[in-house]
Specification:
Order of helices and strands of chain A: HHEEHHHHHHHHHHHHHHHHHHH
Structural class of chain B: mainly alpha
Radius of gyration of chain B: 21 Å
Distance between the termini of chain B: 14 Å
Shape of chain A: globular
Number of strands of chain A: 2
Strand content of chain B: under 5%
Strand content of chain A: under 5%
Strand order of the largest sheet of chain B: 1-2
Strand order of the largest sheet of chain A: 1-2
Number of strands of chain B: 2
Radius of gyration of chain A: 21 Å
Number of helices of chain A: 21
Distance between the termini of chain A: 36 Å
Number of domains of chain B: 1
Structural class of chain A: mainly alpha
Helix content of chain A: over 70%
Number of helices of chain B: 19
Order of helices and strands of chain B: HHHEEHHHHHHHHHHHHHHHH
Largest sheet of chain A: 2 strands, antiparallel
Helix content of chain B: over 70%
Number of domains of chain A: 2
Largest interface: A-B, 36 and 34 residues
Oligomer: heterodimer
Chain lengths: 474, 477
């Protein structure tokens, strides 16, 4: 019941928001934030909530509307609720209502994606979560071509996923197998390779990983702050989650074969993202490219196959969600005040807007991996995992990227907040209570997680060992 | 050939068909009593037609558990033909809702009667298990449509009708020549006999020509070139009707021929070119749609590709494939007719040329209409939560399971191209635009809203509960 409500609740209430007049922004904000808070409470209330399952297909393979918590998805659902809460409060402008609708639909669809225990249902939500982002880009974005790029890239991935899912279903006889300890599925080498290729394409495009990343900076730059917070915090994790939840238990051999390739792609993403973030003038794109770099690190961890690295990956998935959402929300607040994101135009805001500067600095510090904040916990686990698994070269590259992260994050902060006052920038007031209230839960969460990542890391161990198939035996 | 002398049970099998074929006479007769150009005149004609179709649909539904092999097996009324007949009936009712305001009021009885006769032809094709009945049904379907295409006052209407007449006659020629060769090779026109006959070159050529005829009617690539022009010129309701009913009837014949009329050990070889046609249709249909700005032409190309998906499901002639083809056809009917109904609601008389620019900012002018159109388009593009998604995954699974993974790959490729086509419209509807120069026409006839609502519900519900009829086989007696 709870899991169904987590999926359908936001979608239904979101669509019902169209009934609210466009001008009542405060009401829209309150409703959307309340929905997010409620989903958080619902999920946190009972992590052991029973599964909900309803048979969908019995031919040609078994498929069900099967939703349920698993240890990873529990944390991602909580993360998503926090980020949606912040995003809802950050809504502003004449399009606030339309964006709020899409954000809630997106939240429901992504809850469905992470709670799905059926592969076909996973594929359904995978495709479904494209639409809200596409519509926000069309409605709110200045350039329709970003919407186009986003859709075409991600739909191509979605179709590859769909074909792979159909083949998986035909080979295994059932797609209702995710996190099912009784599922014993043997996928032959030939089919396995093709199926893995389909999944991998979808996941790599979604994450995104070099060379499928070109949609990402445009999308992130054009999305309104509220939407980009959610997309970068949670939607970009869908592919990595897919590797952990689907490929790792069922296609471990293919994952092992693809390891070298993925290491290469991951390290390219790491370095390329970091260098691009160093060179970029647009503040939002700096954070977008930093995401590319960080997610490359997670990709390395996922493909290492070591327990420790994967735990680190999950911690970092949550941590990155928290700090990237906080960064995008703060930058959104900056852009709203100064009407530019150009680091060369901005500057000197810190002295007038100390609270805003404080929020940005703590987000930036989390992103560059300051010990005591969540980013560090994830990075250190991943790097230790990589080294201990003998994956030395990628780990060294990862280390370099972590150092570069300090450079571009501090450059970002300096560009926006430090330096002399720029004379032609308008004087605006400091961070409002509402903005603070939107960002505070995220900051608290990554402080707590930075001090004690134990709950996530330890739960993940359980999740992973309980994963359906003993891979090496196959 | 036709076997023993017909008995009462044979006519009982044809009862739903009789109803659809006879109601037009009643409509024409009643219309004689109207002299004026009143709305009642239109209402009576269309109302009678809808009542007749509902009765026929109910009669056919009542026959569903039974199997009739009427006229010595020439006409087989069973699960298969009944499902196709119901699709035809529902599509015709939807067309009538669209057509009530179109054309002069003294023509409405005539067009309604022709529509019904055309539908009865498709119903006949759905049950045809004999080359002669196939031809009979096909000609009944087509002859009525030639007139319907020409009836509009638009300048392109005559071009459309003439093109349709010539090319469709050519298709009939292929079909007839193929039938003659098949008869020559086997000495019979019954599908059941063809299936057991020894394979000779003449039979193979006959089957090939027969399939070419069907491919023409289905507008599979490379026999598709007539479709966009004909669709563009015909009145909108007729286009909607053609895009669904002609295809449904022809698909029924194609399925029965592929599954039941070919010797099982040679069927794969004879049908192999068909899968190539399906693959070409999925690719070229969607590529062709990319460049279109007129909605009718765009939907014509999209229909070419959609039929390609359905024919793909037949690959390997598996029972599951047949069931999913029927499911997808039902879904396509709902999504496509829904899209046409939306277009009809955007033209004052229900039949204007509706180009893509007319959709600019629709989401802000008429949000409900835009929402419905978006829903149909994401369905046609194969995205959830619609039958487009569920149907496509089922077709993919059946195709992969039958060993035609390459065809499944092409289906995915075609779908990827089609995303451009359908989302181009979504983009125009949702992107912020200067609305001052957009013509905001509204149909005076609100009835298409009924079609839109029903189609939305069907598109959604079939996606969640993809029910497929289980008693579609055997196809011949």
């Amino acid at each position: 019941m709870i899991v169904t409500a987590l999926v359908l609740g936001p979608i239904v209430i979101g669509l019902a928001l169209y009934a609210v007049p466009r001008e009542r922004i405060v009401l829209v904000r309150i409703i959307a934030a309340a929905v997010a808070a409620l989903t958080f409470a619902l999920a946190a209330y009972d992590p052991a909530a029973p599964d909900a399952s309803l048979r969908w297909l019995s031919r040609p393979f078994v498929a069900s509307f099967h939703l349920g918590f698993n240890p990873i998805s529990f944390w991602i659902v909580l993360l998503l609720a926090l980020v949606t809460f912040g995003a809802a409060l950050a809504l502003n402008g004449p399009r606030a209502r339309n964006i709020a609708v899409q954000l809630l639909v997106l939240q429901g669809a992504m809850n469905g994606l992470f709670l799905a225990k059926d592969l076909l249902l996973f594929a359904l939500f995978w495709d479904l979560m494209l639409l809200p982002v596409f519509l926000v880009l069309l409605d709110g974005g200045p350039h329709a071509h970003a919407a186009w790029k986003y859709l075409i890239y991600n739909l191509a991935g979605g179709l590859a996923l769909l074909l792979a899912t159909a083949a998986f279903g035909m080979v295994s006889g059932s797609t209702d197998v995710l996190y099912d300890p009784n599922a014993h599925i043997a996928i032959g080498i030939v089919w396995g390779t093709w199926i893995f290729a389909g999944f991998a394409l979808a996941f790599l495009i979604k994450t995104p990983v070099f060379p499928f990343h070109t949609w990402m900076p445009d999308t992130y730059a054009d999305l309104p702050p509220a939407a980009v917070a959610i997309v970068s915090a949670v939607q970009s994790k869908a592919g990595l989650y897919g590797f952990i939840a689907i490929a790792l238990p069922f296609l471990a051999e293919q994952m092992a074969q693809a390891r070298t390739l993925m290491f290469v792609l991951g390290t390219i993403a790491l370095v390329y993202g970091a260098l691009a973030a160093l060179a970029e003038r647009d503040a939002k794109r700096v954070v977008a490219y930093s995401s590319l770099s960080h997610l490359g690190l997670i990709l390395l961890a996922v493909f290492t196959g070591s327990q420790l690295a994967i735990q680190g990956a999950v911690v970092y998935i949550v941590a990155h969600g928290l700090f990237s959402a906080a960064l995008f929300l703060v930058l959104g607040a900056v852009e709203e005040r100064e009407e530019t994101r150009d680091l060369l135009r901005l500057g000197g805001l810190g002295s007038r807007n100390p609270k805003l500067a404080g929020a940005l600095v703590i987000g930036a510090l989390a992103a560059l991996g300051l010990p005591g904040l969540a980013g560090f916990a994830g990075e250190i686990l991943i790097l230790t995992g990589l080294f201990s698994a003998g994956v030395v070269w990628p780990a060294l590259v990862g280390l370099i990227a972590v150092i570069l992260a300090s450079a571009y994050m501090l450059r970002l902060f300096q560009g926006v907040m430090n330096g002399p006052k720029v004379p032609d920038l308008p004087e605006r007031r400091d961070m409002t209570w509402l903005e603070g209230f939107a960002i505070a839960p995220l900051v608290i969460a990554f402080l707590v997680l930075g001090v004690d990542p134990g709950p996530i890391a330890s739960l993940t161990i359980g999740a992973h060992t309980a994963a359906p198939v003993n891979v090496s035996a196959r | 050939m036709l076997g023993s002398f017909p008995v009462a049970a044979d006519y009982a099998a044809l009862l739903p068909w009789f109803v659809v074929a006879i109601v037009p006479l009643l409509i024409l007769f009643v219309d004689l009593f109207f002299k004026d150009a009143s709305a009642a005149r239109r209402g009576v004609a269309v109302g009678l037609a809808i009542v007749g179709l509902v009765v026929a649909g109910a009669l056919a539904a009542g026959q569903y558990p039974h199997e009739y092999a009427a006229f010595g097996g020439a006409f087989v009324q069973g699960g298969f033909s009944i499902v196709f007949s119901e699709i035809v009936i529902v599509a015709t009712i939807a067309t009538l809702l669209l057509s009530i305001g179109v054309g002069r009021s003294d023509q409405v009885a005539g067009t309604t009667a022709l529509l019904l006769w055309s539908a009865s032809g498709a119903m006949l094709m759905a049950g045809a298990a004999n080359l002669m009945i196939v031809f009979l049904g096909l000609e009944l379907l087509s002859l009525a449509l030639y007139c319907l295409c020409a009836i509009s006052v638009r300048s392109t209407a005559r071009e459309s009708a003439l093109k349709y007449l010539i090319l469709s006659s050519m298709a009939s020629g292929f079909l007839l020549y193929g039938s003659a060769l098949l008869f020559g090779a086997t000495g019979s026109v019954a599908f059941a006999v063809l299936a057991t006959a020894p394979v000779t070159p003449v039979l193979a050529v006959g089957a090939g020509l027969f399939l070419v005829g069907l491919a023409f009617k289905l507008s599979l690539v490379p026999f598709h070139a007539w479709t966009p022009d004909v669709y563009e010129g015909a009145p909108l309701p007729v286009t909607a009707f053609m895009s669904v009913v002609t295809k449904a009837g022809t698909l029924a014949v194609l399925a029965r021929f592929a599954y039941a009329a070919l010797p099982s050990d040679h069927a794969a070889a004879i049908l192999a070119p068909l899968w190539v046609l399906a693959a070409l249709s999925m690719l070229i249909g969607n590529l062709g749609a990319l460049a279109q700005t007129d909605m009718k032409r765009l939907l014509a190309y999209s229909g070419i590709a959609q039929v390609g998906y359905i024919v793909t499901a037949f690959a390997g002639t598996t029972a599951l494939g047949l069931r999913y083809a029927i499911l997808y056809l039902a879904g396509y009917t709902a999504m496509n007719l829904g899209a046409f109904a939306v277009v009809a609601l955007m033209a004052r008389d229900g039949d204007a040329v509706v180009g893509l620019p007319r959709f600019a900012g629709l989401a802000y002018r008429r949000p409900w209409l835009a929402a419905a159109m978006t829903f149909f388009l994401i369905g046609l593009a194969g995205l959830p939560p619609t039958i487009g998604f569920t149907g496509k995954i089922l077709i993919l699974a059946a195709t992969v399971g039958a060993g035609y993974a390459w065809l499944a790959g092409i289906l995915i490729l075609g779908t990827a191209i089609s995303a451009y086509v359908y989302f181009k419209i979504v983009r125009v509807m949702f992107a912020r635009a200067d609305l001052a120069h957009v013509r905001d026409e509204r149909s005076s006839n609100p009835l298409p809203w009924i079609a839109v609502t029903v189609c939305v519900v069907v598109t959604f519900a079939l996606g969640l509960v993809p029910y497929t009829p289980s008693n579609v086989l055997p196809l011949v007696k």
